[in-house]
Amino acid sequence: MSNLTASRSESSFVNAARKISSTAISKSSAIKKDTNRTTNTSNKKVSAIQPRENSEESSDKDEAKDFLKSDLAAKLRVYDPTCKPPKKTQKFSSTPNNMTSLLASSEIQTISGFDRSAYASGKTVLVLENGDMKHINLAEEQPKMVSMNLVGRVTSFSVSNDFTIFAVAIEEENVAKVMVYSLELDIGEEKAVYGTQYLSQEMCISQAAEIIACLSVLEERVHLQTFDVKDGINNCSGNIIAEKVPMNWQITFCPADEGVLCALGGGTAYLLRASGGHIENFSTILLPGVLCHDWANDVNIMFGNKTGLLHIYRETIPLDVVDIRKLSEDILTDSVNVEIISIRSTSRRLACQTGSGIILLFDSNAESGPDWGSCRAFIISDFRLKSYHSLSFDFADENLLYDSGNALQTISIQFLSKLNSFNGDVVSVRHCSRIIGARATESTIITLDDTGLFAVFSKFTNRVLCSSRVPDAFFFTVLATSHKLLVVTKTHVESYTVMLDGLKAAESIFEKELIMDTKQMLFSRDNKFLMFLTKSDNVFCVDLSSRKILWSTDYKLHFFQSMGYSNATLLLLNQKFIVSRIKHGKDLSNVNMHASDIGFSITSELIEGNNNFVFITADCGELLCSAASALDEPYVVKSKIKRIRITTIRAFDDELLVGYENGSVGILKLTQQVPEDVNDIILCNFNGVINLKSLLRDINAERNLIKETTEKFLDLFTTRTNNELQQIKTEFDETMRNYKERVKTFEKDFNESETIKQKTIANLKGLYEDESTHQKRKYETMIEDQIRKSFRQLEEKQNEIKAIKEDAERKHREMIGSFHITEKQLNIQAENHLKKTIKDLKLQIIKKHDDLSALREEKEQNTLKLKENHREDAELLEAEIWALKATCVQLNEQRDHIGDENIKINSMLRIAKQQIEHMRDENKRQEVEVQNLREIIQKLHNKENEITRAYTKVKKNFSIQTKQYDELVQQNHRWKRRMQDLEARIEQLAGCVYDPRRLEHSVLSLLAKSQNVDLDKRYKAPI
């Protein structure tokens, strides 16, 4: 592949597209001039084109030859699956002479797809596929999809809820019947066969697997029948009369009453009662928009509609409406399709699937129904909405089988989270649209539909190896390695590697938009020639070794649908089953391959052949086959796929692949591989026969001994079981009494602790309020004492200042009287002294003013922490200072006395400062007391939190005890159910006393039940 460059590939494909279009449409006349015309028919021209050089008239012809000689032909030859080294031919017992008889007895078998599916016993899955019933055991090391090879066409099937039997409805040569098979020992073991009046479209089996109900849709009514599995008789029959009979129906049995059924069709639910040989409709529920239903528990029915609502009814009484959007609001938004298309309910699980591919899972109970709070969502990738989607749980309700449209998958639901989006294990794959391509190798079959979905199937196990989608793919072929595909889309050609997880792109050949007028390309069986059929009915044949056109044919108004190749002959098919044949460039006579069995208003579509057979498809879905040596003797090939149009066929030496419009793929075996040395008779000596008889006798004796031992064991087991059940019941009653007493004691202790807690909280609140009131009063008293003390100090200072003033006036008068000098001298001395004193006082006043300003600022900063009375004190002190200044100005001559007064004032200020410092210390002490009070309050909060935690612990213990009590109640219900099941089995065993085979089977079943009862998770709940 590396030697094919992208540029070379692009140019070859583009030139090819343009030249074939011009050659086939606009310049066909020029090609006709260069061809050797024949006169066999008036509208056909066959010629052997020979290459000529230097000819002006052959320019158009040369362009066509250039296209046909381009690398396209060589590349397609390289990637064609038939271009492999010659293989060693396999030896078959059949010969070409008896090939027709072998094929006449063969039938087209389906190899892919599924219509309906369900879990059987264990990990076995039952699949209904185009009328064929298949099964696959997923527990095997190499699971295989095995057909049951039932005679006839299967229309429906149903599996019992206990996984003991399953029933199928079969149409065999216009005869309808119901067959019942056992699932306990061998899945193909036939148990009973019932003949039915009409073909059943829907079936269901009762809860105890004793009654089978069949529903048949007729033109003006719906017919129902019930069959007794045990007695093998038709119990009841009846009809549902409706104005307009819908085609899609569902039918289910009531788990609590096997005589009550629910049939849903056309938005109406019909509640039916089967008794006395008749089935009558005793109630009807109108449910517009409802698509599916199932029983939510033993007596309630659940319906799912298009708006995402689950309606729960008990008969005709509506009980509840559940909106699934509210259960999973994260993913079920307004843009998501929430119509409920499928519901499946068991005693432990409920699953409902929406139209957007989302599956909601709920835990359920046989008595109370689903637990809506346990919702888990599973998102399906690559979902395709179909008319019917399968949902099925296995026996243990631990695995879910679901249908994504294209694939049937299983998933374990034990450990799913709230939201899951991964893929399950693929069981089978189907195509939802028409098949456009099919190829086969030695070990695989590859199919392609028009949506680009590839599916690879194994020939050995009939399982799907992988599936993948390639958008816009319309053609593919298998490369020589058988592990790679060459895929052609609208814009590019790529090779893909087949892997288990899908197709992986390996290499891009080229990418460019292709505009091609070619309708079909075909290789010869020996890979020497390549034929082209255009949309204008032009046919070209190219020699791949020389890349030259060997011959060409121009047909007019033949409207060829397809072409095939058989025995070196090119076959061209029109719409009227007329086959035109060309061999080595020569036109042979036409052959009519119409068969009268399919009617005369049918048109033909496809033709395909190999060295022995030629096949033609009709638009009615039938496949015609004739021997290559006798094309005018076709016959209709049998097929399990009825009345579906065939869209593609591909013939090989030993098989034919058939693709249908609905996505189904069938295979027709053309040869039968039989071993060379086969002995039909095996001879044995006499002693060997005697030994075999002796062995048979010993086996019969051992069987009789087992019967006797089984009867004894059954009696012993019955007696011991009754004693154990009685003992268990007594212990359970005693345990229940003890638990009730313990619950009462817990309630009493809880009430007492609740009362103590309330009292403790009330006492703590009282202590807290008393302590807060005491501290508040204490701080208020301290502040009031401080304010009173400040007022007393201020009053004392005012009295001292007044005494100083009086003393100063007195001394001034004494000094005036003591003066004996003249008034002039005194004036002069007084003026000089006054000036000097004034000057000194001014300096001192300025200095004192600065000191007083600093003190005042410090005092103001300190007094801001106190109340407004402290600021008033500072203002009074400042007023006194100014009064002292005025006195000093008036008493100029009393400098020494004024200095003494200033010293006293400074001492008073120092005292005031000391008082302020004392108040600061007092405030710090008060802050320490407040911090201690806060610590006490924090301790009280911690005690309150401890009390709260103790209350929470007591409440949690109470909830645990309540949960244990509920589990004991549930265990009691389980033991009752187990006793009922055991009594039913014993009654069933009593009815089989006179039938040794059924007695042996029932005893073995009871022994298996007794051995596995301790392993059943449903009975392992803790006591």
UniProtKB/TrEMBL annotation:
Instruction: Please tell me whether the keyword Coiled coil is annotated for this protein.
Output: yes
Listed A to Z, the keywords are: Coiled coil
Indicate the segments annotated as coiled coil, or none if absent: 692-749, 787-814, 838-992
Origin superkingdom = Eukaryota
Chain segments carrying region Disordered: 21-64
This chain belongs to the protein called: Protein CBG07638
- Species for this entry: Caenorhabditis briggsae
